[in-house]
Amino acid sequence: MTFLLAVLCLLLIAVIVIQIGRVTELASKIRGDEEMQLIINKRQANFSLIFVILFLIGCVASAMMYKNWMLGYGPHKAASAHGSGLDSMFDITLFFTGIVFIVTQVALFYFAWKYKGEKNRKALFMPHDNRLEIIWTAIPAIVMAFLVIKGLDTWNQVMADVKPDEDFIEIEATGYQFAWAIRYPGPDNQLGTRNYKLITGLNPLGQDWTDAKNLDDIHADKIVLPVNKKVRVRITSRDVLHNFYLPHFRVKMDAVPGMPTYFVFTPTKTTAEYREGLQAYEQYQQPVDPNDPTGPKMWEAFNYELACAELCGNGHFSMRRIVEIVSQEEYDAWLAQQKSYYLGSVRGSDEDPNKDKLFDFEIKQRKQEFTDAVEKAISSDSIADKTLKFNYVNFETGSATLTALSKYELDNLVEVMNKYPNMSIEIAGHTDNTGDVVQNQILSEDRAQAVYDYVVEKGIAAPRLRAVGYGQDRPIDTNDTDAGRANNRRTEFKILNQSL
Amino acid sequence: MANDMMTKTMHEEEALIQELGYEDHFHEHHHGDKYQSNFITTYIFSQDHKMIAKQFLITGMFWALIGAAMSIVFRLQLGFPEESLAWLKPVLGKWIQINDAGIGTLSPDFYYALVTMHGTIIVFFVLTAGLSGTFANFLIPLQVGARDMASPLLNMFSYWFFFLASVVMFASLFVSTGPFSGGWTAYPPLSALPQASSGSGAGMTLWLVALTLFVVSTLLGGINYITTILNLRTKGMSMWRLPLPIWALFITAVLGLLSFPVLVSGFLLLMFDRSLGTSFYLSEIYTGGQALDFAGGSPILYQHLFWFLGHPEVYIIILPAMGIVSEVLSVHARKPVFGYKAMVYSILAIAFLSFIVWAHHMFMSGVNPFISNFFVIFTLIFAVPSAVKVFNWIATLYGGNIRFNSASLFGIGFVSMFISGGLTGIFLGNSAIDIQMHDTYFVVAHFHIVMGIAAFFGMFAGIYHWFPKMYGRFMDETMGKIHFWVTLVGAYAIFWPMHYLGMAGVPRRYYSFETFDAFKHFAGMNKFITVAAIIVFAVQVLFVINFFYSIWKGKKLTVMNPWGASTLEWTTPIRPGHGNWPGKIPTVQRWAYDYGKDGNDFISQITPLRDDEKEDSH
């Protein structure tokens, strides 16, 4: 309906204009074509002059109006070391092109006005002038040569890759529809290898978990970087083209599936410093939410941002990550808090190719854990504290065969019992309530016995040990859930005598 | 008085053709009429270059309206994201999503489809076929003094392949998965994988078919233009006597012939990747929950092939406009075009350079930064021939006796746009600045002004200027001037502010700016741009009304040469039939720009040199 009305309005306007046109035609019939043309020339020439004046004023006024929102000016100076070079290239180019713009636009419309068709004017016969041609070939050539040299000098500095002996941080950004995945190398400072065929829900980047470099890699939901430290971003894509774009740092590079790219830059302003800089400008004193005048102001809420700048599908406009630039100490503290993605999410899962072996650090860690627990139990006065659960002793499903990895934990037990030669313990097997009660009782006894046998074999005197099966009688958790049942299926030991 | 003079000139011209013209016995063979004997051979499967030109023009206008209307719809989304677009539901159907509150918004998928189609349609169907197709067909035989194109049959095929391409592309707008939506450059892997974007399914297949047909049309046209210009020039029409539009159209056709096949080869490999499972462009992709088998391809290879056409393509668009404007400004300033030879050499320089700068579209694509050095150098050299042309146009106006009408106004407007848009190219061509500006609104502003608006201005100048030759009537001048001033001011109002968006780092091809703190401060500006776009669109509709109104109701032409122009097309009858000249073909005695020489207002190209006269400019 609205559309129809708009079309009707337009038609009406057209009719009116056609009628005006008719009147003009009539007038020209009365006055004669030639005289009418002279009047038109004068009017249109005046419009030309008015246009160029208003145009130039408009250019300057609009630039003034938006200057505090534009990068490269006042509040939005580049926040990276190389960025100021780019900004100054922009300004130099603006200076030269600005001059040419004003001179040529003014000349164009001024000449149009000055040389409008008039009754007694004769046009100049001026087909060419080689001297002029040489001048206006040479001047642009010289200016361009200057811009090329300066531009390429800047470009080659900015795009240079890091040298191997340089001190830098490497992180990785992977674009996918529609977000960025950020990966830190972890304590070894090395990003592990990837293979896109390994990608699963649990392994979004297709990291190869048999590569030790991957095991400490961190997945972060934002980019945090220390100020004044060189960063090399390794940029990759999982599906289509994306573009790693940090507007405040003048960083931009396509993410190409199958071909990692990079960009090297050094942030020079922390987020806090940048906010402070914005505070000086009135535009940034406005509240973020106009409906909540007491809420945070724009400068307070400012954050550096990572965006996508290469069309990648219908969610292209939403690939945002926050970028935080902090001091070296804050960065170290933040990094220390981050957990390895592998150990946090993948270790021990079905997808873990290493699930049948323990890493040295895990063996060490488990030993520490076990020893600490035993020491605590020994020093405790409460009887209840004397019962300890073997956290890492497991059996093959439905049988009393110890899994390979259980032996590490039992070796820890052997070591403790050697350390405290008078200690004697009871080894207790428990099951959950699924299956037959009698079968469960037998299984729990067999499992306790398996542990008993292992420890005896390792040289602990048999009288110091006692194996008992409790079947399903002593649950420590509900039997109604998988997790609860898993807790109930356990092997424990109780310290009977600890006289040291 | 003036009329007397014109009548005299007219008679003089006819007499000159009688006296000096070349007798080719064209009309004795009656094969002229074979081509135009009934309605179908006259208006539909016509082999007459003038009719084919009109077919290209009107098809181009149809596409221009569609392409522009698409931009209005996506501008509404950008300018007024919170306003309901539910009223578009009857037209756009499921692409308008209406929420519980009754507010209708454009779906992101269709937003991207509109952006993509807008680009494809305007670049190829309007500014290549509509502009080059129209004026190459119309002007080449008329201005070189030929009866028709070298092969009228291939020429007819050229239009009908374009028509076929149009039908396929139009059909793609209606497929259920949507038209192609991966940007007019169609970069893989997005364009190769229907899993990654629904528009890359059937929509993309039709898109590729349509553009391949389109290239066939361009090549058939191009071969004809080149052959006609090289072989069918009339006696005396040396290359250095060719009017500038012919030079421009000649070089345009050469560019098309050399670059479009490369695009097709790029498309062919893309088709293989899409349907035969090859890996030219695809490698190590995980999408739709699946790791695909493609290995070893490079998306960057496609970008090289695409831009090897893509860059010459922008000159294929702008060169004809430059040629037209040179002619129009010279005729209406009543002065020879300044530096004719410099204009020709700069066209040649631009054409040569256009083949060795393609990778300046790819500075940030992951190509080795070292090779960018060469492309920066060649790109900025472009500024030199471009500057020469601008200064020459301005010098053409200097000291003139300018007749202001819609044609000359659009010619002047073209120069203004070309300056404004050309200068921002110096920023973008410098790779160091491009790091920040690449794929921002700065780029959008740059190419819309320099090759979108400027090319349209050239086209409008040409249409207003040659409309009397096409239809024997004038277009309405009042509507024409309203059209000009609103378009000039409006186009700047739309695109000038986009420079500021780009300088603020706002990326192009964003459906919404709300996600990012850095990009969301420009709601007011985006509204302003949208309103300006609607107004400009309205006056383009006015132009179309004027065009069709004037075909039947415009002021009738009473003289052969209403502008007092020296080129050959104005020596034909008011409504030239097939074969263009009723008797002999005129022979050419001098260059095309003798305006204001020795006290004469103009001297037609068919007027012999006086005994003591020296020919100018060569």
Provide a short characterization of the protein structure.
In chain A, 43% of the residues lie in helices and 15% in strands. Chain A is an alpha+beta fold and 500 residues long.
Characterise the protein shown here:
Chain A contains twelve helices and 14 strands. By secondary structure, chain A is α+β, with helices and mostly antiparallel strands. In chain A, a hairpin with a 2-residue loop joins β1 (about 170-175) and β2. Chain A is elongated, with a radius of gyration of 39 Å. In chain B, α6 packs across α16 (about 440-470). Chain B has helices spanning about 1-20, 30-35, 40-45, 50-80, 90, 110-145, 150-170, 200-230, 245-275, 300-335, 340-355, 370-380, 385-395, 405-430, 430-435, 440-470, 475-505, 525-555, and strands spanning about 95-100, 105, 285, 290. Chain B is about 60% helix and about 0% strand. By secondary structure, chain B is mainly alpha-helical. Chain B is built from 18 helices and four strands. Chain B starts with a helix and ends in a 65-residue tail after the last helix. The longest helix of chain B has about 35 residues, at about 110-145. The chains are: A alpha+beta (about 500), B mainly alpha (about 625). At the A-B interface, α1, α2, α3, α4 and β7 of A face α6, β3, α10, α11 and α12 of B.
